[in-house]
Amino acid sequence: MCLLAAGLEGWRYVLLIRGRTEVLPAGQVRLDDALVTGVGWAALLLAVAAALTLVPGLGRTADFAAARVDRQPSRTPGRRLGWLLIPGWNLYGAGVVLAEVDASLRLTPGGTSSPGRAVTAGAAALADPRSAGHQAPLPKSRQPRWQHRIANNPPRSTVALPA
After folding, report:
1. Own/partner pairs for 80-83, CB < 8 Å, 24+ apart?
2. What is the DSSP code (8-state) at residue 112?
3. pLDDT digits (tens, 9 = 90+) for 20-37
4. 115-140 burial, b if ≥16 CB within 10 A, otherwise e?
5. Is-contact 70 154, C-beta < 8 A?
6. Which of 9, 25, 71, 152 is deepest in the core (most CB within 10 A)?
7. What integer best gives the mean pLDDT of the chain?
8. Section 71-88 average pLDDT
9. Do 159 and 147 touch, CB atoms closer than 8 A?
10. For residue range 42-74, what is the model confidence (pLDDT) as tens digits?
């Protein structure tokens, strides 16, 4: 939808250039204005719908992944919301939250894990588009905090169940 809006804006620019040397038909200009406005609003509504669908689902998935391995979620729901929705933060926060959830889902009870290659590459591309595809292993001193949080987070309960 956004590509369509961008294409229509390009066509609007072509009309602007043509309008410097010729008189444009009013119907063509009105149609272009209506299409640009309509597609722009549709793109905005689709983005809001995607956020309203993704954010609660990702929150439930993070809680489920933490409960599955008997750990606390690495972030509070409010902090997750901020990292996913606040402009600027969401450029790197979405990748961090997705990597934490992916690593938690791959974690075995009592074990450690790291996110999959696709999530790592996506987070890198979101944080710095120039780094997409360049995955050099980090030394232990520079590993992301989420790995330490998952590995060092104590279990929620230490009560032994009767046999």
Report:
1. 80/55, 81/55
2. -
3. 999 989 898 899 999 989
4. beeebbbbbbebbeeeeeeeeeeeee
5. no
6. 71
7. 77
8. 84
9. no
10. 999 998 998 889 888 888 888 888 888 788 888
Comparing CA positions, the residue from 26, 29, 37, 24 lying closest to residue 12 is: 29
- The answer to whether 100 and 146 are in contact (CB under 8 A) is yes
pLDDT at 163 over 60: no
- Structure tokens given for 58: 């990702």
Domain ranges of the chain: 2-135+145-152
pLDDT at residue 123 above 90? no
Which residues, in sequence order, are CB contacts of 113 under 8 Å at separation 6+? 103, 104, 106, 107, 150
